[in-house]
């Protein structure tokens, strides 16, 4: 394909993309395909000779599209949203045009410096402490995913404590590794466990309270006991917006619990909820974040930027680069030796990197702070509408306090296992989720969870996509908003589908007291 | 920006991309900018309100473009090429349209299955052993970079030996970690050292022979000595196409040296040269690869596919997934439990992943095997032309046998340090590179290296981009071909520039006998 043929197919792609986004809500959100559906439609061997691009695009439409899960559909409410916006998409196009690899400053000065500037913009939009800005000892960097951000933070934490023990006690990493402990909560993302597993280090999962919040007291008690047992705490992850419930950990309490130990690296995973901090009304959730070592959030989730674009901010860049820099002869440059530039490959596991700051720059400018805020407000407003509908149904209850644009609900145990209804009522309306969970006997929980799986199964037959979660043993349905193709009309539709499914699982029966 | 405004700016982007690729050779390949050039041109704070996209694109052209290193220019001969082709670019556009995240099969069935099919295609195009195909116990997966591919291979290797010692000796990872050794050569890519550093494990760098090849005998001797010293070898990286010289390690010899020890994971890094294996005449370099544990190469380097797209093939998928899988409740699906599908997040460090098989599919089909072969042939032919010009200049010599499309040359020591010329001549023409290096006295090497840095500096003033390398102490200039915008005309131009610079550093002087 030469430039002229590209013009033809490129313009056609632009039209296809525009039409797709205009009509995506009409497509089935989850494809009706069985495993290995594609194998039967695509030759097992690569083509020997060039095939026409017209045929390729025809096959894309006929074979691939029916197997796509439409993340951008307003009816996609599973997992977390993945960012899309038109300026971001055009940013990706220009990045593909340049098709460079910015591992060193000299490999792409504009990409490197635009990254520094745009991550600083993000830090300011979120109200991060100024020690996370690039003109301090810290700064931000774009990683592929929050998994990567968390991973390199844990590597930096391990390097820091290993250096300390080397310098102060003459011990090497292998001497202390068996005693190192990383901490997560029972609501932390699996990437913390994965990072520790990959590094061959121990991770302890701490319990959260009835609101799925990791409390400072829990951390303080655990740290004391673990130190007493001769262990060496070196990393803790606090989450702002947990994966299942979007709960917010007690960051100030955790900071306080760790403050006497400079070898504990506090990492904040705000992969999802970080984007909400562009709105001042959510900023109170950031309390304590000025005192942590690293903070990550994914503009590619809820800030209209295409995947991949996870931002990691660290208080001390050297802690990261000391742990990650390997500089062979062929990667050394004068500008770097003189300390004039950042080589972002020293901030990540990989060497190569795409020009991801371009889509970020296009998006932040084309939306502006006010446009980003509007997107967050719209998503939260839609979630609130859904909660209002839900709250009017006597058979359903929120399992967790709804934060941001995430809603977790389930059938009330009294509906699924009626004999518990009296004890429930005796507990009174003031009973917290937690005491109710305690009161809930095993049979009631089991019955409720079984009905919930029935309900989920039924909803999955319909044309919306949402996922399950389990919160302290309670199976729930997790509805995540954030697509800019969602609307109040879609929420009303989704609600009517869900209510219809609930009707099938537990018919509205006046005799059941809930 | 709505769909209609996107149409306008999207079509404009298509025209801009086509024009860029038509004219990229006329742009200065390395930008004339100083560190922090961008800071002065972009506001320190993000915009409060939306800015027009016309203004954004104007700034892109006025501010960003002057700071871009043009990797797609035919005059870019630094590092390794980074892939570009029009079908690949359109593949990225459609992937950006769908903007999904395929961490589980259900998250994007078509993306998952297309990945399985296209990496199988690649395995067949390269002639990989069928045990690397997905219908065996092995298979391929797309990673972001070869650094990632190598890293997860090392993690799998460590997991395998740890499991062995757990099962057979009741030892845990911390018991054996201090004794684990990974092996690389002095020509291996820095990602091996980085992977070991990140994992906190020891890496030994083995010497290569005079052709920069890691020999089986070297490996065998080292393994014996290390085992005798109580160490536990667990990972070795053999390279096909080393970073500095594109040399090819003695894979059959290395396989033989390791064959008695099933705990040594043999990883082949063919990041660059793997693409050349689409041509049968290079296949002899693959000897021994049927017997290794993992093989990685980057279609995003030399196979016309946009970054990021690194393929990792493993003989035993379970070795990889056992080491990497962490499956919380919210990521469990029925299809996965039943073993019907692959969830590619279990094959990598990250959870999230882009739809990268689409650009691969578009490119492989639109070029076909014959088109891919032609691209490799063209690059190699261009390198051969460059070598012919070089060989006619009595002041220059190849430092390494030229492999694939990479050329490393330097000034002859006799030119830089004339008093060595006699001893050189006495050595006779048959002297190998190695014996010459040995004969080369310290002063001659120092003088030659100093002149080489002068030469490099001069060349860097001109409008071509190539990089330096150091090969067994000899500084050389490394010219890497592979851009599809390169041509014989450009090579003639580049050669005339280089010759002009050589003239300045060491004028052609009939009195110097070379």
Automatic annotation (TrEMBL), chains A, B:
What's the name of the protein?
Aromatic-L-amino-acid decarboxylase
Q: Does the keyword Lyase apply?
A: yes
**Tell me, what's a Pfam family for it?**
Pyridoxal_deC
MF terms from GO for this chain are: carboxy-lyase activity; pyridoxal phosphate binding
Q: Which GO terms describe its biological process?
A: amino acid metabolic process; carboxylic acid metabolic process
Q: GO terms for CC?
A: cytoplasm
Task: Say which family it is in.
Answer: Belongs to the group II decarboxylase family.
Which cofactors go with this protein?
Answer: pyridoxal 5'-phosphate
Q: Entry's InterPro entries?
A: Aromatic_deC, PyrdxlP-dep_de-COase, PyrdxlP-dep_Trfase, PyrdxlP-dep_Trfase_major, PyrdxlP-dep_Trfase_small, Pyridoxal-P_BS
Q: Which terms are listed as keywords in the entry? A: Decarboxylase, Lyase, Pyridoxal phosphate
| Residue(s) carrying N6-(pyridoxal phosphate)lysine | 301
């Amino acid at each position: 394909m030469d430039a002229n043929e590209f013009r033809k197919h490129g313009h056609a792609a632009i039209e296809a993309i525009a039409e797709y986004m205009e009509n995506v809500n009409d497509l089935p959100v989850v494809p009706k395909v069985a495993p290995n559906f594609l194998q039967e439609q695509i030759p097992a061997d690569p083509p020997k000779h060039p095939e026409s691009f017209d045929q390729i695009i025809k096959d894309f439409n006929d074979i691939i599209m029916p197997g796509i899960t439409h993340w951008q559909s307003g009816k996609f409410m599973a997992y977390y949203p993945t960012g899309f916006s038109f300026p971001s998409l055009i940013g990706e196009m220009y990045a593909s045009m340049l098709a460079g690899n910015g591992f060193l400053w000299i490999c792409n000065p504009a990409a490197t410096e635009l990254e520094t500037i745009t991550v600083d913009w993000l830090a300011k939009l979120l109200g991060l402490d100024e020690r996370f800005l690039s003109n301090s000892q810290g700064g931000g960097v774009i990683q592929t995913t929050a998994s990567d951000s968390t991973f390199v933070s844990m590597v930096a934490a391990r390097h820091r404590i290993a250096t300390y023990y080397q310098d102060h006690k003459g011990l090497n990493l292998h001497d202390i590794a068996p005693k190192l402990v990383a901490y997560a909560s029972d609501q932390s993302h699996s990437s913390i466990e994965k990072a520790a597993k990959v590094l061959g280090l121990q991770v302890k999962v701490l319990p959260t309270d009835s609101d799925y919040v990791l409390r400072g007291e829990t951390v303080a008690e655990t740290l004391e006991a673990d130190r007493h047992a001769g262990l060496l705490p070196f990393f803790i992850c606090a989450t702002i917006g947990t994966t299942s419930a979007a709960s917010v950990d007690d960051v100030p309490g955790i900071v306080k619990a760790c403050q006497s130990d400079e070898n504990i690296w506090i990492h904040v995973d705000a992969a999802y909820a970080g984007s909400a901090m562009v709105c001042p009304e959510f900023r109170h959730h950031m309390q304590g974040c000025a005192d942590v070592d690293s903070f990550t959030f994914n503009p590619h989730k809820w800030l209209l930027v295409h995947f991949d674009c996870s931002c990691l901010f660290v208080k001390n860049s050297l802690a990261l680069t000391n742990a990650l820099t390997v500089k062979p002869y062929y990667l050394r440059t004068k500008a770097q030796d003189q300390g004039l530039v950042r080589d972002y490959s020293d901030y990540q596991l990989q060497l190569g990197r795409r020009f991801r700051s371009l889509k970020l720059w296009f998006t932040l400018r084309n939306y502006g702070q006010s446009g980003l805020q509007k997107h967050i407000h719209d998503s939260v407003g839609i979630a609130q509408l859904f909660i209002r509908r839900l709250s009017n149904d006597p058979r359903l209850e929120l399992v967790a306090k709804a934060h941001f644009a995430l809603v977790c609900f389930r059938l009330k145990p009294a509906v699924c296992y009626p004999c518990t209804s009296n004890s429930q009522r005796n507990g009174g309306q003031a009973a917290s989720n937690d005491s109710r969970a305690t009161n809930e006997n095993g049979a009631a929980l089991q019955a409720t969870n079984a009905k919930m799986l029935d309900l989920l199964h039924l909803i999955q037959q319909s044309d919306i996509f949402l996922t399950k979660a389990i919160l302290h043993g309670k199976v729930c349905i997790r509805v995540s908003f954030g697509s800019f193709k969602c609307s109040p009309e879609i929420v009303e539709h989704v609600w009517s589908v869900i209510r219809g499914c609930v009707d099938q699982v537990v018919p509205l029966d006046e005799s059941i007291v809930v």
